[in-house]
Amino acid sequence: MKREYPLEKVRNFGIIAHIDAGKTTTSERVLFYTGMSHKIGEVHEGETITDWMEQERERGITITAAAVSCFWTKTTDDPTDQNKKHRFNIIDTPGHIDFTVEVKRSMRVLDGAIVVFDGVSGVEPQSETNWRYAEEAKVPRICFINKLDRTGASFERSYASILDRLSPKAVRMQIPIGEEGEHVGIVDLLSMRGYHFEGKNGEKVLAVDVPEYLKTDAEKYRGELIEKIVEHDDALMHQYLEGKEIPLEELKKTLRKAVIANSIFPVYAGSALKNKGVQLILDAVVDYLPSPVDLPPVKGIDPKTGEEIERKPSDDEPFSALAFKLQTDPFVGQLAFFRVYSGIVEAGSYIYNSTTREKERLGRIVRLQADKREEVKAVFTGEIAAAVGLKDTRTSHTLCDIDHPIILEAIVFPEPVVSLRIEPKTKADQEKMGMALKKLSDEDPTFRVSSNQETFETVISGMGELHLEIIVDRMKREFGVLADVGKPQVAYKETIQGHAEAEHKYIKQSGGRGQYGHVKILIKPLEPLVPGAKIPKNVKRSEHFEFVNNIKGGVIPNEFIPAVEKGIKEAMERGILAGYKAVDISVSLFDGSYHDVDSSEIAFKIAGSQAFQDAAKRAKPVLLEPIMKVEVVTPEKFMGDVNGHLNSKRGHVESIEDRAGNKAILAKVPLSEMFGYTTTLRSMTEGRASSTMEFDHYAVVPSNVAKEIIEARS
Ligand code: GDP
């Protein structure tokens, strides 16, 4: 198998944006200009290509992250020259706050991003969240200030908000020719060329002279840009200081390195809706965003030895890939999107899922293009494609060569913070509901389904009210299941704040064989893991639990120890105070005894579970609640009311900033106080304020509030 184009010519990138900034419109223009889509649909008509789910169309938000592939030849290159063609794999990322986890997930597999901003409002709260995720994942970014045709748009003000609120490493690559109604084109500062976009859909990119009135500004900003670039190369800096003109190609090469190193974020201008500027941004993707070879080798664990190993981005390395998204396709069934980090995989071959430790057959492989699915025979390093019919592969699993296994770092998802009861309307719905919920939770790792053992109710949990609302809606649309839902509830947790020891002897002697299990345990709060510290052999640690085996001299035989651990884990699931799952506890099993005949796994399991319950009650147990980061943007005259209300909701206002003539209030507020907040805010501010909210951390519930919650549950 040979690849059709070199790896250096692949770009895996995402388009990320605050909701309404114009991500859909921009994506659509991209697909049009790359020649895959033959008509430009309007977002409000619901004709865009990435928004193919019916419901997304209605809501106008892209919920799922699909990957779409296309080709691009730079506007300055000969379009018929096959050597100039670049493969783009565009990973779709959602804009709504409840789906930031989807953004986080996609960050793992994209190598670069275009961040879209609304030229009227500049940086918005969601842009900051997305920026932070990109920062954490070290994803190189180029910024696109969109909508410069809108009344009130300002490139300079939006650019200043990027410098101020996101990064001082941002730098202008362009300035617009005209703004608002007069926005007709772009000046590219490096080349000092103007550009107009003509033809029905702006498909003709015409180089023009820089308008006279912009020349002084353009020269000044070009100077700033060059200064920022030469900082990254000593030789260029030298030439610059000597007053020499540096060749354009040299500047671009250095800029490319700096962008890939996350040291510079170039800023572009335009209007996707009015077909201005998009092609130049695609040229920038080629020029400045990394190809898979520009990235360091991917790291993973050898499942046989537990040691860290690497895979270089090369077709010659053993195959390794990460599944990053499951999606049900209306025509071919379930698709598992994966990104290949090394090697090649062929359709029809057997692969190893090192996460599940199962072999799976990779039947068909497809690549999604704007308007069709292309069947592919092989997927090469750096590529993104989707497998049809993988049975046990889930998001975040590693797929690899059977003879050269590796486990890539898994994508970490936050725990759900909201849950609600869901009840099928009829018997027929009941039968379908289980299947529907399973499919939906397979697709979305932040969506969970559980059933209450006592009441037989089904409980679904997710990242926010809207998240669950959409799930219920999809259940109705895609699976035809009608259900009644309860009120949203906070997903509380429990933990301990002190140490306690407990002993439990489980003995039963009623005829026949008896039961005997005897344990002594010490429990204490789980200490955070020190990075790089070695975990001793007798310690088993997972994210929220640690089990330490301190049994000496075989006072409890090894075969029974896992049963003790299991009993403790089950007791933690059942909680201590109010039946919410207990987390972040370290348990040490340090003594006990056994009986030659009567001891059994079940007896030790019960002893472990009882000892835990007893110890936990005395170890200062507390309830934990999710605290949300809330941002409210309001006209100043309502600021007092909004603040006062947040304070009365156990909120803590952390800062107040000026934001384009309004006030932005940043606060931390318990989720339990925030249900229905948008409605309250609307009536408090005559509908003129807006708010966003995302999960921040879990904190101890104050005792007076905890008392009520515990009483209500008992
Ligand atoms: P998304 O939520 O980020 O995907 O944003 P959309 O692409 O759906 O755009 C939101 C709204 O802004 C739609 O009504 C678009 O027509 C409009 N829009 C997008 N880009 C532009 C632009 O460049 N200029 C103007 N005036 N409107 C735009």
Could you walk me through the main structural features you see in this protein, from its secondary elements to its overall organization?
The chain is built from 16 helices and 39 strands. It has 714 residues and is an alpha+beta fold. The longest helix has 18 residues, at 601-618. It has an eight-stranded antiparallel beta sheet with strand order 18-17-23-14-15-22-19-20. Strands 2-3-1-4-5-11-6 form a seven-stranded mixed beta sheet, sandwiched between helices. The termini are far apart. It folds into five domains: 9-186 and 263-294, P-loop containing nucleotide triphosphate hydrolases (Rossmann fold), CATH 3.40.50; 298-408, Elongation Factor Tu (Ef-tu), domain 3, CATH 2.40.30.10; 418-483, Alpha-Beta Plaits (2-Layer Sandwich); 494-619, 2-Layer Sandwich (Ribosomal Protein S5, domain 2); 625-713, Alpha-Beta Plaits, CATH 3.30.70. It is globular. Helices cover 27% and strands 32% of the residues. Helix 3 (100-109) runs parallel beside helix 4 (125-136) and helix 10 (427-443) crosses helix 11 (465-479). It binds guanosine-5'-diphosphate. Residues 17, 19-25, 43-44, 60, 95, 146-147, 149-150, 271-274 line the site of guanosine-5'-diphosphate.
